[in-house]
Design a protein that fits this description.
Layout (H helix, E strand, L loop, with lengths): L15 H4 L16 E2 L1 E3 L2 E3 L6 E6 L4 E7 L3 H17 L6 H17 L1 H12 L3 H22 L12 E3 L2 E5 L5 H14 L3 E5 L6 H12 L7 E3 L4 H9 L3 E7 L2 H11 L5 E5 L5 E4 L5 H13 L11 E5 H16 L19 H16 L3 E4 L14 E4 L6 H4 L6 E7 L2 H9 L6 E5 L3 H10 L4 E4 L18 E2 L4 H6 L2 E3 L1
Parallel strand pairs: 1-5, 7-8, 7-10, 8-9, 10-11, 12-13, 12-17, 13-16, 15-16, 17-18
Antiparallel strand pairs: 2-3, 4-5, 6-20, 11-19, 14-15
Helix pairs in contact: 2-8, 3-5, 4-5, 5-6, 10-11
The protein binds NADPH dihydro-nicotinamide-adenine-dinucleotide phosphate.
NADPH dihydro-nicotinamide-adenine-dinucleotide phosphate (NDP) binds next to helix 8 and helix 9.
Length: about 500
């Protein structure tokens, strides 16, 4: 082997600038949007039967992006019939191995179109481009990849028992993670052999309808996936339609309860993923700098429009001042503004209604005696924006400690003992998620069983994986999405 020395073979200079181009800021790539989006029924884009459309706007500048078809009960009926025909004629009897190939194809196509989808998601929903680009879209593709693997292994979900798809599944999703929630719903349903009729949220229908284009490109048999955009009435029509044998809903607890009432007495299967008011608990032995990053990520990710957001910080009294000082310093440098700029930390609030709801709850916090602190940054003149805000001096009875704000607002409470932390964390009608920050493994294990929450993160927050089941207790709903448990919710086990 020839000898080399630093003299004869000097280390080459690394010039990264020559190796790749940086993304522009703000983002300029073409999201390939249409001016008008029709319903995706039976493999084609069709106009709504009543001919009605509604505008969807960019919440960051209040300009109209496109007209979206408004599906009524007749359109939902056509979609359900198409789904039933596809289930009986093709999808329900297709070998799992073949179904899996379609899911893999969809996953790869989502990757191919990732940039376009990320921009469309950010324009329509207001979330920062770095989140749609690095989280929402890759995670949506990951869900299709993961569930593609299950399609030919269904018998391993319940060994020794027979599993069968339900048939037509009605799915209604919210606006906070539009494409990702679609993936959480559609990927397991299809892997299990079901066909779907999905209603996206009114303010964020574009990526769901673009997903119809992906289904076409993947050559998915007609009717396997149907997307019916529209209002609350459209969602209600999907849920009560006689052909939907299973209903999967993500959204507010209030609507979840009304869905339960409307389905009482039917034999439809149901999974509900509803609201939350998670406690993010910081003990005095926690690595405080890491914990502060976890607190920031827990509440300000996606402007706090996250059902599992760590919206109640429970901090041990002995480190409360230190944590608060670090948190204030961190919040001071958070950037609020143009969601298309990759340097933006908090983008636009999803809608005027949501901004009004956040403003109202923040006002109640001040009126009830809590102490408000925000980062005082300048907000854009147009669009819906809210500064990252923290409240101290919060008591358990305050509305900001009890109600889901669904915005960038953190309520800080203190505790002295682990027992008090658990008591306060569980003192809520919700039970979706929690976070624990401590150096002690034994404490993590103990708390994870004591906290009444579907997900408990330890020394981290807001971490998701398609293999890991997600779902709630109490008024946060029931059923799981992701992992083996999520697959089982799309099958009947004989
Ligand atoms: P909703 O529960 O009202 O909406 C969720 C989805 O359900 C949307 O597609 C919505 O349609 C649809 N929908 C509304 N009413 C009905 C109905 N009666 N039957 C069937 N479908 C219906 O949530 P919002 O979007 O209005 O948000 C309100 C609050 O809900 C938020 O502030 C937050 O607290 C919570 N929320 C929780 C989420 C979670 O992930 N757990 C997600 C989103 C919201 P449309 O968009 O047309 O209204």
């Amino acid at each position: 082997m020839p000898k080399t020395s630093s003299k004869t073979n000097p280390a080459r200079e690394l010039v990264f600038g020559d190796l790749w181009e940086y993304d522009p800021a703000p983002e300029t790539a073409d999201p390939k949007l249409k001016k008008r989006y029709d319903l995706f029924i039976n493999g084609s884009f069709v106009a709504p039967q009543a001919g009605k459309y509604f505008p969807t706007i960019n919440p960051a500048n209040e300009t109209k992006i496109a007209d979206i078809a408004l599906a009524d009960a007749a359109d939902v009926n056509s979609a359900c019939i198409a789904a039933q025909k596809a289930f009986v004629g093709v999808w329900g009897k297709m070998p799992g191995k073949e179904r899996g190939k379609y899911l893999y194809r969809i996953a790869r196509l989502l990757q191919d179109h990732a940039r376009e989808f990320a921009i469309a998601e950010t324009l329509d929903g207001g979330k920062p481009i770095k989140e749609s680009r690095d989280f929402d879209i890759p995670m949506a593709a990951a869900h299709f990849f993961y569930h593609a693997g299950w399609a030919d292994k269904l018998e391993h979900l319940a060994p020794g028992r027979k599993v069968a798809p339900h048939g037509v599944v009605g799915q209604v999703i919210p606006w906070n993670f539009p494409l990702l929630m679609l993936a959480w719903k559609i990927a397991p349903a299809l892997a299990a052999g079901n066909c779907v009729v999905l209603k996206p949220a009114e303010t964020t229908s574009i990526t769901a309808l673009k997903f119809g284009e992906i289904c076409q490109e993947a050559g998915l048999p007609n009717g396997v996936v149907n997307i019916v955009s529209g209002a609350a009435e459209t969602g209600a029509a999907v849920i009560i339609h006689p052909l939907t044998t299973k209903v999967a809903f993500t959204g507010s607890t209030e609507v979840g309860k009304s869905i339960m009432r409307s389905l009482a007495g039917t034999d439809k299967k149901m999974t509900l993923e509803l609201g939350g008011k998670a406690a993010n608990i910081v003990f005095d032995d926690a690595p405080l700098d890491q914990a502060v990053e976890g607190i920031v990520n827990g509440i300000f990710f996606n402007q706090g429009h996250v059902c599992c957001a760590g919206s109640r910080l429970l901090v041990q009294e002995s480190v409360a001042d230190a944590v608060l000082a670090k948190l204030k310093r961190r919040i001071a440098v958070l950037r609020v503004g143009d969601p298309m700029d990759k340097n933006t930390d908090l983008g636009a609030i999803n809608s005027r209604e949501q901004l009004a709801k956040i403003t109202d709850l923040v006002k109640s916090g001040v009126e009830e005696g809590a102490e408000k602190c925000d980062n005082g940054c300048k907000l854009p003149a147009k669009g819906f924006f809210f500064r990252p805000t923290i409240f101290t001096n919060v008591s358990m009875s305050h509305r900001i400690a009890r109600e889901e704000i669904f915005g960038p607002v953190l309520s800080i409470l203190t505790f002295r003992t682990p027992e008090e932390a658990v008591e306060k964390a569980n003192n809520t009608p919700y039970g979706l998620s929690a976070g624990v920050w401590t150096d002690k493994g034994s404490r993590i294990l103990k708390l994870s069983t004591q906290l009444k929450a579907g997900v408990v993160w330890a020394n981290t927050y807001n971490k998701f994986d398609p293999t890991s089941p997600f779902g709630g207790f109490k008024e946060s709903g029931f059923g799981r999405e992701g992992g083996k448990q999520g697959m089982l919710d799309y099958l009947s086990v004989g």
